[in-house]
Write a structure and sequence with these properties.
about 25% strand; Chitinase A, domain 3; 4-stranded antiparallel β-sheet; 5-stranded antiparallel β-sheet; about 425 residues; alpha+beta; Alpha-Beta Plaits; Trigger factor, domain 2
Length: about 425
């Protein structure tokens, strides 16, 4: 086998492969003979079909398989011999001209780029931190109370108030005409909790059971219902039922109902604080990791292989289809999803992946077994049965690979933060928790 390696442009390379035609013909003949033992044809007993019939029916497909296999092996051998790191699959095309008795093919492919990372001491990164305050604990306890609240019907003489759960009939009209989604019966919502537009909440407040009322409502210009966005409607509302909320008292009984070990209010607040600190830690790590990755991308110089971007695009499109399917979209697997909308993100992912891989390789930032163990232990603590969660992770290679990727990114983050120009910023708890 003769091997020729050419550099085309940027990351593109070409290897010319030649294989003896006799090798191909011999392998085709061997496979056809093996196939003839099981192939069925009208008028012949199994295993007795003439080779001429087998060759006529299956010769082309078998030859195609043999050529693909043989050229695939030849390409892998040539790539190893040439010491090239192939990015993606090669494009194989047969050449019209070849030495006598040979078949010649061009294998065009891309190689992994050289990644140059500038001096990280010049990189600027904002490092966030957040403190779990008493006010944050108070708000979380209030959420726990709301989750366990009960409702009791108000006296008929009392009007609807903030936090009341009301049941109403309503019909909305725009310019005197009903519109889609503008009518409902026995509709239930809680006043002041953002389930309805603020103007609707305001219109319902003070109404008593049996009372009907008409009030105007201006839909916002960016309202999700495009047919009514920016328009004014008149709503006729009839109050059917009003229920006042009852929040449980924060006491030992409430703490015990939540399964708090120790069963005191102090134990409850300590448990809430512990859970909030865990969530804050993961969010801060994610935010700082994102800042580090942005800085790394700016500090790196490299060409991005188109083959890797194409593969990432395919994964993203498939992921989008899977998401549509999960949401119950009909024929989600056939949904037309233009790759162009994902291309910038795909290029960014591939670029960053190559930069991180180079930093990990050159600075020995691989995930250590004890780091993987510690990470899984920490994640499992937020579940009711941590030991089962740990077994769930440890028992699956794919899940462990995902954990390994996270730990490696954490190692990279710490490495960069130790070298870069870091400015520390204390984020308010609410600001951190409001970010996705």
């Amino acid at each position: 086998m003769a091997v020729t390696v050419e550099t085309l442009e940027k990351l593109e390379r070409r290897i010319t492969l030649t294989v003896p035609a006799t090798d191909i013909n011999s392998e085709v003949e061997t496979r056809l003979k093996k196939l003839s033992r099981t192939v069925k044809a009208d008028g012949f007993r199994p295993g007795k079909v003439p080779m001429s019939v087998v060759a006529q029916r299956y010769g082309y497909s078998v030859q195609y398989e043999v050529v693909n296999d043989r050229i695939g092996r030849a390409f892998n051998e040539a790539a190893r011999e040439a010491a090239v790191r192939v990015a993606g699959a090669p494009r194989i095309t047969q050449k019209d001209e070849a030495p006598e008795g040979q078949l010649a093919f061009d294998a065009t492919f891309e190689v992994y780029p050289e990644v140059k990372i500038a001096d990280l001491s010049a990189a600027e990164v904002e490092r966030a931190s957040t403190e779990v305050t008493e006010a944050a604990i108070d708000r979380t306890v209030e959420i726990l109370r709301k989750q366990r609240r009960t409702f009791a019907q108000r006296p008929a003489t009392e009007g609807a108030q903030e936090t009341d759960r009301v049941t109403i009939d309503f019909e909305g009209k725009i310019d005197g005409e009903p519109f889609a989604g503008g009518k409902a019966e026995a509709f239930q919502f809680t006043i002041g909790e953002g389930q309805m537009l603020e103007q609707f909440d305001t219109g319902v407040r003070g109404m008593k059971v049996g009372e009907s009322k008409t009030f105007p409502l201006q839909f916002p210009a960016d309202y999700h219902g495009q047919d009514v966005a920016g328009k004014e409607a008149d709503f006729l509302v009839t109050m059917k039922k009003i229920e006042a909320q009852n929040l449980p008292v924060v006491d030992a009984e409430f703490a015990k109902s939540l399964g708090i070990a120790g069963g005191t209010v102090e134990d409850l607040r300590a448990d809430v604080k512990k859970n909030l600190e865990r969530e804050v830690k993961f969010r801060v790590i994610a935010r700082n990791k994102s800042a580090v990755m942005d800085a790394l991308a700016k500090a790196a110089e490299l060409e991005v292989p188109n083959a890797l971007v194409a593969a990432e695009l395919e994964r993203m499109v498939e992921s989008a289809r899977a998401d549509l399917k999960q949401r119950g979209v009909k024929d989600a697997d056939k949904a037309p999803i233009p790759e162009e909308i994902f291309k910038p993100q795909a290029e960014k992912r591939v670029r960053l992946g190559l930069v991180v891989a180079e930093l990990v390789r050159s600075n020995n930032l691989q995930a250590k077994p004890e780091q993987l163990q510690a990470h899984i232990e920490e994640m499992s603590q937020s579940y009711e049965k941590p030991a089962e969660v740990m077994r769930w992770y440890l028992g699956d290679r794919q899940r462990m690979a995902e954990v390994e990727a996270v730990v490696i990114e954490n190692n990279v983050t710490e490495f960069v933060l130790a070298k870069a120009k870091v400015s520390d910023k204390v984020l308010p708890f609410d600001e951190l928790m409001s970010t996705n």
